[in-house]
Design a protein that fits this description.
about 550 residues, Thrombin, subunit H, Beta-Lactamase, about 35% helix, disordered N terminus, disordered C terminus
Length: about 550
Amino acid sequence: MEERRQASRYAASQSGRIIFGDGHTIPCTLRNLSTDGACLQVEALAASPPVAIPETFDLVLDGDEPDLRCSLVWQSGDRIGVRIETLSHDAVRRPRAASALPPHRPSPDPQDLPSAPGAGALIRLMAALDEVSVGIVLLDHDLRAEFINRAFRRMWLLPDSAADSRPSFLALMHHGRDTGAYEVTDTDMEDYIAGRVAQIRSGTSVPRDLRLRSGEVVRSQCIVLPSGGRMLTYTYVTDIVRYVDKLEVLHSALDQVEQGVVLLDPQFHAQFMNRAARQLWEVADEVLARKPSFTELLNDSHRSGAYGIPADTLGEFIAQRIAGVQAGDMNPIDLPAKGERTIRSQCAVLPGGGRMITYTDVTDLVRQSQDLERLATTDSMTGLCNRRHFQSLADTEWSRFQRYHRPLSLLAIDIDHFKSINDGNGHDVGDLAIVHVAGLLANTVRRTDVLARLGGDEFMILLPESDLANALVLGERLCALARASPLVTDFATLPISLSIGAAQASLSQSGIAALIKRADEGLYLAKARGRNQVAAVAPVPVKSDVAAE
């Protein structure tokens, strides 16, 4: 009997009857049968009112099996789970209607009766698996289905008659093919089925997403059981996969743009860097794969030499960048990169606390801006500050003088007899004389001094932290330098001399214009005395220790 029960294990849709204690019976259908338990479908449970199933009863199945003594374990809808305890000897003696009795069978040997250690737990487990939303299939070592839960049946529109017939995994795949479930072309279908069977046979546990023609996506995973069988799980992951698909489309699109994009999670770990950002900061794919922190990215870029920053200031720069991103500072910042490039970076705070950092190569824009600024502030002939830029810098120094009362002086300089040089030798030589004198002045002044050509042969030097005495010393030095440095041309050697007026700022003056006027007065005095010298007009005595507004 044991061998026959093993052969009929998990028999499909076998009819039977439940025998009550008073002898009356109700029909049932066997859905699953093991050596120690069974799942029965009882249509009478769906009636109104439903039939009450006793705690213990006899079960008789169509065929030549003896009556089985069963105990009720669980009940759900029109199905019940029972534990098969032993052969019912009472049932042989119990009077029943002739139509309800199977053909007479001899009483079995008690040793053939099924034992049931742990049967209740197994039945309860199978009942629980029938209630979960995850599709589950248990296969034996020959890849034939020993159990298929309800979720799988609904998922793949598998009839109970087919599910309960112990189909092979290949038959299940053919069912999906025949019902048009797979999003696979007809030409690829057989290869697809063969690949799935090979995957299950090999026991590969890597999850696989199965796309259905309905638009749904099911994630399947295979687990090898100790008995050599397989447990297959099927879970709907449509929303997740659609989100991932959209994310991949977005990432692919971002990989095509020239602007670098970095996405950080709330812990400031890089979740994505597009191609432009990876190339810009020389980040290897294997580095990005481990989801490095923003700090690691900065340090890796430093080691690769991606930043055009001196080594002694790089540590401070990295600390400032980290602090700015953590604070969510959205102000653009220009970063020096190698190759004398300028990269404009901007940080945006994302919902959830992440960050998006963009990098744009603005080298050409910065150079154009610098060129425009240079044109707007620089004398094109000499490369010195022009009048406009000098005025701006002079106003700044005057404000500092008013605030801190530090010394401030000014030299006004003209080239002696410049009109004669220009008229007698041509404008080209006149221009050479201007450039020659500009070079002498630029090589003599300090870095903190403001040297400018105001127009024609007129120059000015603003001297912060210098009083009148120091200004006069510098003026004498420049006069001597000019005398010792004649202009040498292809046709002649022309002597050069300068007339210089000096003045010191005082609190009685109304502003930088007053200081320039006083220096011009000194220049006129130097010319009146015969040129080739420096002169200063005596300052007006200070009547108040507060500068005029």
